[in-house]
Structure formats: structure tokens, C-alpha cells
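Bug #77: duplicate submission created two jobs. Keeping one. Sequence:
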Amino acid sequence: MRCHPASKPLQERASGVLLHPTSLPGPWGIGDLGSSALQFLDWLASAGQSVWQILPLGPPAGGDSPYGATSSFAGNPLLISPGSLIDQGLLPKTAVDGAAPGAGSPIDFTRVPAAKDALLRRSWAHVEETGSLRAELEAFETGAENRTWLGDWSLYAALKHENRQRPWTDWPADLRERKKDALEAARERLRKEIRFQTYLQFLFSRQWASLHDHAHNLGIRILGDLPIYPAADSAEVWAHQELFELDDTGHPTAVAGVPPDAFTADGQFWGNPLYRWETSREECFSWWIDRLEWSLRQVDLLRLDHFRGFAAYWRIPATAKTAREGAWVEGPGADLFLAIEDKLGKLPLISEDLGVITPDVVELRERFGLPGMKVLQFASEDPDSDHLPRHHTRSSVVYTGTHDNDTTRGWFEALDRKKRLQVLDVFDAQEKNVPWAMTRAAFGSIARLAIVPAQDLLGLGSEARMNTPGIADGNWSWRLEEGQLDATLARRLRRLSRNTDRLLREP
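Kept job's structure:
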């Protein structure tokens, strides 16, 4: 992968759409990086949009959430397009007969992973049999940009396969503790599976690069998302145990979450292991620098999830029953961002600064010139809310809602009558057009970048919600239907972009 010239902070007004690739339509049971993604980019360009915001691209760990990935570097194999493999002669057409779990929504996360894995193994068998791609695979495996992560990831994934997907903390002690002889024996024993896992990352990288190039040729930047914490069961935690608060068996001694708030009475108990920030500081934050450098090879702009955790984070003892038992602990603060800027320069980062934000978080964000977020759904919570359009600043990103919110229609319909009337007044809306009125307000904001979820452009209700925080099941499965984003909507959005001075500039 390579950086595009677009990888610099936004300097002009722009707008875009939030839609994760898994939500794209298509015949393989889950959206992918194939023709539907290319068509979506074409639709964005026709609608005058210059940003496509996505969620994290890593392989989900133990669930379906892209925010709990088994790697901070590897791509999700579920996003690899079988259709593109067929077109490129890397998967025989006969392999797909009856293999697709179906085009409909929602995603069936009990069926899709097994079906996709079977197709990808057929592709690998075909490539091995024909001897194709040998030179390209070798170049990918030995490429300098992959040395920091690919070997650990492919071995980890092969060991997960051998151990029937059990977490690394349940592996034999010599593998859990990464004893040299055990790792060497595993690399020899699992040589074929390691090659397959490397092949999957090669395919992901190639398909993503093709998609990214198409976006760049259209003048569209991709806005990615970086979770602050990896999953406990992830290649990075296994390979860099010294960087995390773990006991001798690899289990977290303290975990991440957030304290009680207006939405969750007991707070949120995420379960991710916390960093030993002093150890990271002693290593000049090298792992974080590698992570950001890699992420900005994949995308043009990057949202830092849970930015407040860099100033101070909620530390919950691993034995706690709820997040209530946690306490605030000082984070790495400016030291981390100074180290990043020293090595990588000024980066196109956006801070997710939602929730209860204290002065130290604001000071950190402003010191490094990072845009914050404004969410119009939050504007009705307080008559003087920072999320009200009149309080927006140029150096911010405005949303109608995010992936963690209900759709704007679903949110509005759940409000009591008093709050509904407030929303109608603030956004000069009628009940039938609230999502569009709030889209219009987002685009009309002084904020440099406006992002609207695809569900809000379509005026969809709660059935199209992507995620409900604190609820483990039933999330991440929504998908577009073929043709929902049509030419009529593109023309309407293009007019709005022109009228608010956000129209896509030609590349």
C-alpha cells in the first residue's frame, strides 16, 4: 500500500457519507471491496461528495464489531470480494455454485464467515495449483511496510485456526509466552496455513489499493477510524505483551470502559486491555507510530476513536462487576502526539471527542490542532449545547448522527413531544422531513467537514441502526439494498453541496 497525495488535513469545505463496506449490497452475504464499492464511489462523485467515511477495517474478534479487532494492521478477510477474484482468474466460477449466503440484509454472521472462508480457501488452492502470483506474493511478504506486523499476524491467525479459534491465552504455555523454540516449531508445523493467511492479506491489500486508487481518481478521500484499544485476543496484544496491563497468563489486570452517564447507568465495560503507557514512552511510542503510519497508508484522513482516553482513561479492575468500579487515570497526553509529529509530521487526524469532555481533553486537542466532532442529535439535550449549529467552529466535523446513534428518523420518533417540538424549531423542520432538515443543517454549518450516514440520507428508521452501545447482539448487520442510493438522491445531494459551498472539487 502507498500514501496518496491527498493524505493531508482538509483545508476547504467538504462533505461526505458514512457507510462501512460491510453495509454495501451484493450477492455474497456481506458488503465487500468489489464492484458495489466501486459503484458507491461513483455515486458519491455524482452526488458531489468528496469524503467516504468508513469504520475500522480489521478482522472482528469474538463478535461482529469492527471496534474489537484481532489486529490493528491486518484487513478483514470478509471484505475480500469473490466477484473480483473470479474476474481476475483467482477463483474458478464453479467454486461459487450455491456458495453465496445471499444478497439480502441483514448480514448473517453465523453463516457468512464459514462460507467466505471456504471460497477463499478454494482460491488459495487454485493459486497454488496454477503457480500464479508467486513473485507478487513474495514481494508483499518481504515488503518493508509489512515487516512490523505481517509475520506475527499470519502466525497468530494460523495458531488460532489450529486451536479452533480459542483465544491466545488458552494456548499451550510455551506459545502463549512466545518461547522461541515453540514459535519456530509452530512456523514449521503450520507453514501451509501461514501461507494461506498471508495470501488473504495480500488479496485484501490489493483489492483495497484498487478501491483507494479509484477514490483518489474521483477526487474522493477516505476517512478511516482508529480504535484506541485492540481486542484482548489480538495479534498485537499477543506479540507485544509488555505494552499492556496483563498478568503472567496474558489476561488483563485492568480493562477499558467508560463511567456511568446519561445513557448507561453502570457505565460501559469494554474489556479491552489497557496500555502500560510508561513502557510505551520508554520505547518512544514506536508501536503507536508504526500503527498510525500503516493506517495512513490505507486511508487519507483518520478519526481517533475515544480521543479523551489519551488525556485520561477510565481504568476498571479486571475483577470488577461493572464499570462503576473504575477510576480516572492520566493518559500519555502530549508526549504521544509530540513523538508522532517528530517521526511523521503533521497528520490528517480527527478527534472523537464525544461524551463528558474535560478541559484537559480540549487543551490536548487544541494544542495539536485536531478537529473535534459535533453531532446534531445531541443538540437537543441542552439549550446551550456545543452541538447546536451556532456553536460550531470551522475546525470541526459535523454529523447528523454516528454509527453509535440511532438513525435520525429513529431517534426523532423516540423523543417525547416537547423535545420533538424543540428539534422542529431548531432545524426549521417538519416531522416528515427531519432527517433531510438536519442534513441541510449539517451541510450549512460553519464546520469544515460535514458527514451524514447513508441511513439518514435515505430517511430510514431504527431498523437500519448500525450499533447500540452496551448491547452485545444484533449490531453491525444492516445493509443497503440494490438501487437505494439512486440518481434522484444524488442530484438532490449535489444541489445541497453546491448551495452550501461543499461541492466536490475535480481532482
